[in-house]
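chain below, 429 aa
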Amino acid sequence: MISALGLLKQRRFLPLFVTQFLGAFNDNLFKTAMVLFATYSIFADPHMESNFNALATGLSLIPFFLLSALSGQLADTTDKAKIIRIVKTAEIGIMLFGAAGLMMARAGFTSFGIGMMLAAVLFLGVHSTFFGPIKYAILPQHLEDDQVLGGTGLVEAGTYLAILLGTIVAGWISVEGAAILVLVVAGIGWIAGRCVLPAPRLGPKLALNYNPFTSSWRLINATMHIPRLFLAICAISFFWAIGAVLIVVFPPLVKNVLTADERVASLTIATFSIGVAIGSVVINTLLKGRISARYAPASVIAMAVCVVAFWVEAHNFIPAPAGQLYGIADFLTHPQSVLIMATLAAIAITGGMFVVPLYAFLTTTVTKDQTARTVAANNVVNSGAMVAGSLLVIGLSLAGLHNTDMLLMVAIMCIVAAWIATKLHRACD
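prediction:
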């Protein structure tokens, strides 16, 4: 058996890994640069900051909800490598538009620039919607059965390491630098995408349904009746709803509770990415390549405990003097920073251990000619859950709930996810 890391030497895996890595890096670089720019340079109100972040998150998810069914059909009836090449070409145009929006806002045309940036986020959502099913569905086609879990773990770990790098870079370079870099990375990703090996249609050619509502309903209805798929998708959806809440509240929380600047915000978000990547590798080691939900309930319960611990730490954090923000050096030498960062890492590690085996379920439960549609059905439900999470943050923010206290809602959601994962484990193991 080729070890999981050994897959990185394989021609059938490396180009796909590099392509998805660069895509995740670029997507996160642009979004993080936009969010940090808006949080620290445009808005000066915690509720406005949360609402802007929630709006950006919601816009990025709309395409998943509307177009995932079509993307799954296309991926199961068309050469997946061909779709990758088309998607990566589109990314170059999207980044040109988004970079222009950043520069417009930077030049003082704030409203127009924000509109362009948010539109680019919407377009990036379309980009990710069509690429998302492929990066998982292509694995059973290119890898052996006993390599799928390892490949899935590497894709997941690579994605979060890319998010890590994109987050760190976004916090340390200028807006102008971000605008240039997203274009450069899009170009390199286009080259990598052209090296992905062919992955032609395996089953009969599908009659495509272009109606986003009927196609989504039929896709979900055709997938969710399988008990363990239903449970796996529900568990993953709760995880991403949790992720949506954390994504929305965290930059304002760092600014207004930890009273730290955008570089610290970048560091804390990067800690999440490192943790999920570590969790992705750890769970593959524990399971030794076997696809199982054995550790999922305990992992997400541990995540809930860590979230509550972070809530306590945030409430007891000693803020910077009024009108000031901690820089990276001041924050790292703060007596409470080690515990804060360790708790964040623990939240992310346990989250990665929870979600990776569930994605492996999606690609191995059905036949290889149905994997893309299965992942697409998962994306539809996930996006709906994340939109619900974003709307919940907006509603609670308008009701006056503090960002820190929303962490307790995250802990409750973790308990629900643990209950679903327990049912999945009993049904499948």
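The chain has one domain: 11-199+213-428. Residues 71 and 352 are 26 Å apart (CA to CA).
thats it, cya
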